[in-house]
Automatic annotation (TrEMBL):
PANTHER family: DYSFERLIN-RELATED, TECTONIN BETA-PROPELLER REPEAT-CONTAINING 1B. It comes from Perca flavescens (American yellow perch). Residues 1216-1233 have a biased composition (Pro residues). One of its GO terms (biological process) is autophagy. Its main location: membrane. One of its GO terms (cellular component) is cytoplasmic vesicle. Residues 115-176, 188-221, 888-949, 960-993 form the Peroxin/Ferlin domain. This is Tectonin beta-propeller repeat-containing protein 1.
């Protein structure tokens, strides 16, 4: 080892001191006071601004110089090492990595109050022998005398070396005097019987081996400076890297989680840096990760997202990134956003992915999540950028096509795409002027010659200038040179230099001097976008990168460059003529003498105190915001927008100049908005946590994360996707539902949860909706409103339901409507029932009826009558708020008490093993006790106590019991000798209160209601409305019209027995069913005689008891107690009672016949799906004038639907002309009917 004399030692100490002082200089100028270890000894730092944490934005210019911009400062500061040149950087929260032009990786750790110290330790092992006692002479089978804690690896003291020059030893080796955390009096020795065994500080008679731990600390001394990462020895290091990216520090919830570092070699290999730890910031070694194709660039997010860009322009996504598998498991290829344009750059964040294509267009990947790292589609974002970077909080930074730096405004968790680009307007050097937007000349100089084109864009690699023209190379081309040379590559001095043909010809000495070479970062970005051939005398580069040729997006002509220039010139892609015209729009005299004045820039003389090009501000080529902690609400001085900057326009220097000058003009006339305009696409996201009823067995509730992502096109169209993220067997998975495919959003009853079901056409066919539940009622309503609004906007539905809407209610009481189309009842190509979209209307009803004049009546579960008070076919106005009324509803919850008779004790709750539960629901399949029975949903509250219900069909005895021979058979209200089982029903009332567009119609409580259907072109002064009271009385509502939908009063219609169902059809045909199942027809009903004259009895189907009917335009359908659907034959205007009943189908609980005689029902179940809850919407197909009974059924949304009304839908599909019918025409207005039956009441 060489020995240094005293003067050399002093010089070395001075260099170390200067290095540390220089490293602390940058932090102090950025608002961080750094105390070197020479002063305080612990490398502490203090914040000059205690209000917010100070973080840094890092950027690299075309010369490889690295700059930092503090969130607490206003000025760009040069990095500490003036000789260091980096290609690009990637920043984390407390560190920044970079790739140098020497292909080495550098690390800059931010100074911290806590020093980075690493403890090296080794164990000294000894064995006892009778001669020498304990000695380091061990048995051949023992561990090494000096080893690690396991004894498998030898670790003598002299084998420990510092990993790099960035570390210093704090002291010498010393013995740890603690054993098991307690001070020891044995000199640190621990004793055991043998290796390996449990060691203890107590020496026993059989202690044959002992060990003690030696400790030595080393400290990381390169905080605040750029430290070179040592190469892996003896392992093979990666080939020269062309890109690096750090991320992964948020993959764990633990605070202070260390980041991961990824790299890409120039051969397209992907490498992963292992061993990065808070105490080992440099990491330990590189590990190669296999890739299917050659990679050009990659980006790692703070979480578990990793995207890579391939040389062919497509993208790779790494899946399976976890703490246990930090390198992932599988690569998935994703196509570029543009089919014909390849991707140029990719950047990822926590849950966002941004991509720049070779035409400089910016794209946003929608649907990205740790459960779905590949996303679901691309959204085009405004702005023309070369490089984008996603920093902390998913904030987006970019390098524009004009080489300026930009920030994406408005990026939040709910709007990850932001709403506009603004320039990063920080000061530069000693000047108080800000850099962007770049305007006027990018480099200081004077106008020398006229130019007819634009100067070529500078690239980060070697010379990329186009082919030269020998004829024009010395006449019409600009000559650009720098007075102060920088780094001159080999061979440059031998390049011939012809004389300059300009007004100011340089001296001979200047001509003979070698041309200076201006170094530029060899970023692959520009090599990708370069479509220009190399010059005839290309400069040798450090690393040759294969370049792809693409079309130049700018239509400006390319100006020939002299062949003798021989080097790259850092010019912008600026139309100089356009720039000069924009710059001199108001003051054209001082710079240009006449119309033929020159328009070419030349580099001015560079001051010795600045680097090349520094006096005019840097020309950026790279940016990293991974360590800059800002968000949409941050108050940063250099991020304050000063005017509208439309991101849909190209952010070229010419437009930036024009925008800047236009801003100055507008400041004198009007106030400029603080928010930038945005005309491009945008993405809005709403995230939350719900519970999901799992689709497969065993079915149970699973906690999931959900996200609604909505993209807005430039033309205003919206597209939304709903994601459900879940974990199965520690594997992240997801479900997604396209909002334009959602057919219904229905609140459901599930285990006392605030649950709702999401239906699509596919899930409707499978009879398995997506069931989700929220923690609170407010959360459920918020998600329902949000999803419903997105569905309605996607389909163009605004405002209240139309007059032709189909209305329906669920068993829970929710009100649903569907807007019909011509295809709904078309004879051909009928709209499938599972494709119908149902939306919810506020309110709570048991049944609802409507007609095409806009009248809608409903009946609550407690019998209260309600009339719809909303507006039809109008846009919402502030007045709509007045139409919302408080609505209450009360319903009863029932449980059944079951008993069986035995000879010893009589009736008791001890049943047979095959019997139903002694407390159950009506079917006896589910156990329901009074204690575990709750209201239908959490929105309801109890308003009474449990009591025996005596109003049960079939009657009860005085104690409320019903008797039968066995379970289950028909129960009756008296006991016989053959009755061995009995039951009684307990009831309890609950109440719900909400607001909806419904107005109460007092005072009579109703059980059924019907409005006369009519065609859309009909006009009626008064609409007939018939109803049944809760006691079975028949009522007729007077004064009902579209202007007064509630009417004026009730008219009682006499009957000799109570009724349970009533319906009025076309031409005032009134049909009703008595509680004993008898059918009646009301005669002589007319506008002049709204109550009619008498009831005519109609025979019922043989051995069947009807319970509900519906009368259409010319047809009558009815449902019996056994869920059979019947059609009344022989109805004619002269014979309105018909002739006979014909069985159509079974499995029907409710029927509704519309003004076009269309038939819709509520099916009891869907064939093939016995497990589904009863109640499905069903459409009768093939119904027409020649086939009034229809032909087949089409099943739609189902599972808990109670009622449907199509009596307002008179939208008739256009029909082809038919031949004239034979016989008398069918008139909808019959003459005075000829009675078929007996008059039973007047």
């Amino acid at each position: 080892m060489k020995s240094f004399n005293q003067s050399e030692q002093h010089y070395l100490h001075f260099l170390l001191w200067a290095r540390e002082l220089d490293g602390a200089f940058l932090w102090s100028r950025m608002g961080i006071k750094y105390h070197s270890r020479m002063g305080l000894g612990d490398g502490r730092y203090q914040h000059s601004a205690a209000i917010m944490p100070i973080t840094l934005l890092w950027a690299v210019d075309v010369y490889g110089r690295v700059y930092g911009l503090s969130t607490a400062g206003q000025r760009w500061e040069r990095a500490d090492d003036m000789l260091l040149e980096l290609k690009r950087v990637t920043a984390g929260k407390d560190r920044c990595w970079g790739i140098g032009c020497d292909h080495h990786v550098y690390l800059n750790m931010m100074p911290s109050e806590t020093p980075i110290r690493y403890r090296e330790e080794t164990y000294e092992n000894q064995r006892w022998n009778p001669v020498d006692s304990f000695t380091d002479t061990l048995l051949p089978t023992d561990r090494w005398p000096w080893s690690d804690v396991t004894g498998m690896n030898p670790q003598p003291l002299h084998s420990f070396e510092l990993p790099s020059r960035s570390w210093d030893w704090e002291g010498d080796w010393y013995v740890d005097q603690n054993c098991g955390g307690e001070p020891s009096q044995t000199g640190g020795w621990e004793y055991a019987v043998d290796f390996p065994a449990n060691f203890s500080p107590d020496k026993k008679w059989n202690s044959c081996v002992r060990r003690r731990r030696w400790i030595r600390y080393r400290r990381y001394t390169a905080q605040g400076t750029w430290a070179k990462i040592p190469l892996d020895n003896p392992r093979k290091p990666p080939l020269p890297l062309c890109d690096i990216s750090c991320g992964g520090w948020e993959m764990s919830d633990q605070s202070g989680r260390y980041p991961y570092l990824w790299g890409v070699s120039q051969q397209g290999e992907v490498w992963f840096r292992e061993g990065i730890h808070p105490r080992v910031p440099e990491g330990s070694r590189w590990e190669e990760v296999e890739v299917p194709k050659e990679v050009a660039q990659l980006s790692a997010g703070p979480g578990d997202l990793l995207w890579a860009l391939l040389w062919d322009g497509n993208l790779l996504v790494r899946t399976g990134l976890t703490l246990d598998s930090p390198t992932g498991t599988l690569w998935v290829e994703v196509e570029s956003p543009g089919k014909e344009i390849e991707a140029l750059h990719v950047a990822v964040g926590v849950s966002v992915v941004w991509v720049v294509t070779k035409d400089y267009k910016v794209w946003f990947r929608r649907g990205v999540n740790s459960h779905n790292p590949c996303g679901s589609g691309w959204i085009s974002i405004g702005g023309e950028m070369m490089v984008v970077d996603v920093g902390l909080n998913d904030q987006v930074w970019a390098v524009g096509e004009d080489r300026g730096l930009y920030f994406r405004m408005g990026v939040t968790l709910s709007e990850p795409s932001g709403n506009g680009w603004i320039p990063v307007s920080a000061q530069w050097g000693n000047s108080k002027e800000v850099i962007p937007p770049r305007k006027k000349c990018e480099f200081g100089g004077q106008l020398t010659e006229a130019s007819q084109g634009s100067v070529l864009s500078c690239t980060d690699s070697d010379s990329e200038l186009g082919p030269t023209d020998p004829q024009d190379g010395t006449k019409d081309s600009p000559v650009v040179e720098a007075a102060a040379p920088s780094v001159v590559p080999l061979g440059e001095a031998e390049s011939p230099t012809p004389p300059l043909k300009t007004e100011d010809t340089p001296s001979a000495s200047q001509q003979d001097a070698p041309k200076p070479f201006i170094p530029a970062s060899d970023s692959f970005i520009n090599s990708l976008v370069s479509d220009r051939d190399k010059t005839s005398t290309p400069q040798p580069s450090i690393a040759e990168v294969q370049q792809e040729e693409v079309e130049e997006p700018s239509p400006a002509p390319i100006l020939p460059t002299p062949e003798t220039a021989g080097h790259d010139v850092p010019w912008m892609n600026v139309d100089l003529e356009g720039a000069e015209a924009a710059r001199c729009a108001q003051a054209a005299g001082p710079l240009l003498g006449d119309g033929s004045a020159a328009a070419t820039y030349a580099l001015g003389t560079l001051e010795t105190s600045h680097g090349v090009g520094e006096e005019d501000g840097p020309v950026w080529t790279w940016i990293s915001g991974g360590g800059c902690d800002v968000d949409a609400s941050s108050q940063i001085s250099w991020l304050s927008p000063t005017g509208p900057l439309t991101s849909s326009l190209s952010l070229t220097p010419v437009q930036s100049v024009a925008w800047s000058e236009q801003q100055q003009q507008q400041e004198h006339r009007e106030e400029i908005s603080k928010k930038p305009l945005e005309r491009s696409n945008s993405v809005w996201v709403r995230k939350g946590a719900l519970r999901w009823w799992r689709d497969w067995k065993p079915q149970r509730w699973v906690d999931v994360a959900v996200a609604l992502e909505q993209s807005t096109k430039s033309d205003g169209r919206k597209d939304s996707i709903f994601f459900v993220y879940y974990t199965q067997y520690d594997e992240k998975k997801y479900l997604h539902v396209l909002i334009n495919e959602v057919t219904a959003l229905v609140p459901v009853l599930r285990d006392c949860h605030y649950a709702f079901a999401v239906y699509t056409a596919q899930r409707t066919k499978q009879r398995w909706p997506l069931v989700l539940a929220a923690q609170t009622e407010k959360d459920m309503n918020d998600w329902l409103c949000l999803l419903s609004d997105c569905c309605c906007k996607c389909r163009g539905l605004t405002g209240p339901p139309s007059r032709q809407a189909l209305w329906s209610t669920t068993s829970k009481g929710d009100i649903m409507v569907h807007e019909p189309s011509f295809s709904l009842e078309a004879p051909a190509n009928t709209l499938a029932c599972d494709l119908m979209f149902w939306r919810q209307v506020p309110g709570h009803l048991r049944c609802v009826e409507s007609n095409s004049l806009g009248l809608v009546w409903g009946v609550g579960w407690d019998g209260t009558a309600w009339v719809y008070s909303g507006r039809y076919e109008q846009q919402p106005t502030p007045g709509d708020a007045v139409q919302m009324h408080q609505q209450t509803d009360v319903r009863s919850v029932h449980v059944y008490e079951n008993q069986r008779w035995n000879p010893m004790t009589g009736y008791t709750d001890k049943g047979l093993p095959t019997d139903r539960p002694m407390w159950s629901d009506e079917s006896g399949l589910k156990e329901c006790t009074k204690g575990n029975t709750h209201p239908p949903s959490p929105e309801w509250s109890w308003v009474s106590e449990w009591a025996v219900d005596y109003n049960v069909p079939g009657g009860t005895d005085k104690e409320g019991w019903q008797y039968a021979a066995d379970f289950p058979v028909t129960f009756h209200g008296h006991k016989t000798m053959k009755d061995f089982v009995r039951r009684r029903r307990w009831t309890r009332k609950c109440k719900v209160t909400l607001r909806g567009p419904w107005q109460q119609v007092p005072p009579i409580r109703l059980s059924d209601i019907s409005l006369m259907p009519c065609l859309a072109q009909s006009s009626m002064e008064q609409v007939p409305v018939w109803a049944l009271s809760d006691k079975g009385d028949v009522l007729c509502r007077l004064g009902v019209s579209p202007k007064t939908p509630a009417g004026s009063s009730w008219l009682h219609v006499g009957t000799d027995q109570p009724f349970k169902s009533i319906s009025i059809g076309g031409a005032n045909q009134v049909w009703a069913i008595a509680k004993d199942g008898a059918v009646f027809y009301r005669g002589s009903v007319s506008p002049l005689n709204p109550a009619g004259e008498c009831w005519y009895h109609i025979p019922s189907p043989p051995r069947q008891t009807l319970r509900q009917l519906s009368v259409g335009r010319t047809s009558v359908f009815s449902v019996d107690e056994n869920s059979n659907l019947w059609y009344r034959q022989g109805l004619t205007p002269s014979y309105p009672q018909g002739s006979a009943w014909e069985l159509i189908s079974n499995n029907v609980t409710k029927v509704s016949v519309g003004p076009l005689d269309q038939v819709w029902t509520i099916a009891d179940g869907v064939p093939g799906f016995p497990a589904e809850i009863s109640g499905a919407v069903c459409h009768r197909l093939g119904v027409g004038p020649m086939q009034p009974k229809g032909q087949s059924w089409d099943y739609g949304v189902g599972g808990g639907w109670e009622h449907i009304s199509v009596r307002g839908n008179s939208v008739e599909a256009p029909r082809a002309p038919h031949p004239a019918p034979v016989g008398p025409p069918r008139s909808p207005l019959p003459p005075r009917p000829q009675v078929n039956g007996n008059a039973v009441g007047v």
